[in-house]
Amino acid sequence: MKHLEVRDLYTNLDSYMDKEVVLRGWIRNHRKQKDFGFIDFSDGTFFKKVQVVYDSNIEGFDDIQKIKTGSAITVEGKVIPSPAQGQEFEVQAVKVVLEGDCPDDFPIQPKRHTKEFLREEAYLRPRTNLFQAVFRVRSVAAMAIHEYFQSRNYLYVHTPLLTTADCEGSDQMFKVTTLDFANVPKTEEGEVDFKEDLFSKQTFITGTGQLHGEAFATAFSKIYTFGPTFRTENSNTKTHANEFWMIEPEIAFCDINGLMDIEEDMLKNVVKYVLEHCKEEMEFLDSFVEKGLLEKLNKVVNTPFVRITHHDVVDILRNSGIDWEFKPGYEDDIAKEHEKFITEHFNGPVFITDWPKDIKAWYMKVNEDGKTVAAVDLEVPGSGELMGGSQREEDYDKLVKRIQEMDVDQETIQWFVNLRKYGTCVHSGFGMGFERLVMYLTGIDNIRDAIPFPRTPGNCNF
Amino acid sequence: MKHLEVRDLYTNLDSYMDKEVVLRGWIRNHRKQKDFGFIDFSDGTFFKKVQVVYDSNIEGFDDIQKIKTGSAITVEGKVIPSPAQGQEFEVQAVKVVLEGDCPDDFPIQPKRHTKEFLREEAYLRPRTNLFQAVFRVRSVAAMAIHEYFQSRNYLYVHTPLLTTADCEGSDQMFKVTTLDFANVPKTEEGEVDFKEDLFSKQTFITGTGQLHGEAFATAFSKIYTFGPTFRTENSNTKTHANEFWMIEPEIAFCDINGLMDIEEDMLKNVVKYVLEHCKEEMEFLDSFVEKGLLEKLNKVVNTPFVRITHHDVVDILRNSGIDWEFKPGYEDDIAKEHEKFITEHFNGPVFITDWPKDIKAWYMKVNEDGKTVAAVDLEVPGSGELMGGSQREEDYDKLVKRIQEMDVDQETIQWFVNLRKYGTCVHSGFGMGFERLVMYLTGIDNIRDAIPFPRTPGNCNF
């Protein structure tokens, strides 16, 4: 008999009430009494568990009572209205079959575990309430992003991860090789002989799909990437990981104002989608992870985002009367403490535009003042920078000048520069760190808990 | 004035007919006559181009006639019924503005280019008809896969690419490092000192997300991955690349027969989705790339797939009367020539099951005969193996025995083995190479033309 998924049971309860069903899944908790037993049952298809009850009339009552938390079971039983408060139904078991047992040393016991402990058991933590919620939201948010862009006719591009292009500085990138480290081949001049490497060149894992994305934007007008990204940063903060996922849309015939419209519209739609599709998970996160999460997100959906220049932000910071650890400067980046203040000041997401050119990337369009670039960061309460974007320099000569000023290696990206030679156009794009979004949506405050198997300096386990 | 996308124009033609519109995009071809001009205009949002016509009354007629193929332009004009055959409408321009010009040496001229030539210009080839079709189908097929699994409540899992687990043999995997190749740090014993590497261990890019996917399947029941995958294979065939995308679903409480049901249902749904969403592209591919493509795919949607054991396939091959280059053997793998014969013999997709255990992976469930495993490959006409899957060994002791027999390093995957200790269950999964699918859907016969920027031995350009 084909088994029923718990999600189907919850979403079509009427059609199963008083019927026999077969369920397969895991015991999250097993409470035994002399003549009864109660099993908190989950198959992971729905956030809420099913209460399975059995009594001493069931075949193998004594053996069933011995089945431990964590075990896989098949339950045959009848869906009945529940006498217990807070649940509409329960399943009265007529048969419980042990599929895979579980010893007492199972780390995920029905009690509160710290997030630090669960990171050590990363392969088992998806079986907890917290990570059932976080990883379902992550999955649904990913779908929301695809849905948003595809329904608006953006092309999804798989940009390559292996690259020889040195666009962000090779110190930021992992080196990739098939060479034997213990025995690196050398040329007669004593240099590493990359001719023997699989690609006959030194190769890296890229930190961005933007360059390749731009090539596709000049053919399809509107594209997005969504894939893994890597940084070698040796930094142990709550918001940095060495492997993470990024979304990088790129839009032709779009200036920085059009870009902000898209960023805002996308974020609002993704938040709405997740609120609609993860009702149970979001209520749990609102109660147990970030009080006020639902209120925060509903407000995001319904309020226009603030747009303000970097210059004006610095004015506000300087006039705030606060004794900043980092003094706000018109030529300087915005520190974490400033981000926090500004998003609280405006009580919602804030686009900060027109940044000093020396602290931003070489491919951004320099404004007419010659001092700032058409860059925009979106800062959100609680999570800081969620998206970073810019209008790109579309003029060949100006771009080459910036490349030289910023000491970027032009040779490996000449093809990218050529996009300005063959039918160039005003265009803009942004990047959104997907884990940052998941943190914002779930209230989770550490990136290690927003990604299935986190990689951070010194940590590449599982 | 906000510009209109060509897709909107085509899909809502009635509401734009006889109206003024603004379009932004690129000139694919420019035919000039003394008092007229015709521009084949594309913004890449729709496969079909728009014919823009202008006459000598337009302001700047002489300058407009000088605008070259490849240039970016803004067109203001009126949508009118077209007198030309084969097109319902054209745009009578009242204004043409050059946004970005294009020199004569633009490689993508309005003539037939070989695919080999276009690979050398990979960053520009998306501007050709062929790659407009292939990469749109690729994008839509990716969405079809997400749509299929998400609407059936599978969890999308981002499994890590960086790994220390040596599950497929480290010769198959790229090494990843932050160490300086020219100056590899050594221990006192003269070994490479990975303590100085970012993760303090030797690290690889993984060739599969299966192991991590199984961890999530034992928590959410049904999961899928969809991400990039890497192999170091030094092989220059039409079907191998060193970087490609894979889909790897994993389903708890599902045996090999259930797995085949899912594979078949998914493929049929993805084909149907692409046929519905890429009508123009598929017609083009049917006409110019693979004659009979549409017929082939429509048949796939409507015909049950054959299911046959490896043993019976060998019988058919041996009884075929063909003088094979590789003699079919009951203990051997199936060669390309055999795949071809079998899919032609059955004239459609064929599931081949129950493979000799010695040529298959260590994690597959050994059948009761002790000789074969519960593995299944799906072979499709023209493209060969499209999916490979198996029921997994769910018994702890049997799995450990196979790990030892096959000489796999158990230490780095002990966590994976432990999944058999904590509530194990019957479960199955498969992998589908996404480029293989794109080739099957488009008729493209070389993987280098199915992926935006291909990476093959000696080739990591752009």
Brief digest:
Chain A is built from 14 helices and 16 strands. Chain A is α+β, with helices and mostly antiparallel strands and 462 residues long. In chain A, helix 5 crosses helix 8, helix 5 packs across helix 14 and helix 7 crosses helix 9.
Characterise this structure.
The structure is a homodimer. With about 450 residues, the first copy, chain A, is an alpha+beta fold. Helices cover about 30% and strands about 25% of the residues of chain A. The first copy, chain A, has helices at about 5-10, 15, 60-65, 115-120, 130-150, 210-220, 255-275, 280-290, 295-300, 310-320, 335-345, 395-405, 415-420, 435-440, and strands at about 20-30, 35-40, 50-55, 70-80, 90-100, 155, 160-165, 175, 205, 220-230, 245-250, 305-310, 350-355, 370-380, 385-390, 425-435. In chain A, the strands form three sheets. An eight-stranded mixed β-sheet of chain A has the order 6-10-11-16-15-14-13-12. In chain A, strand 14 (about 370-380) and strand 15 (about 385-390) form a beta hairpin. In chain A, helix 5 (about 130-150) crosses helix 8.
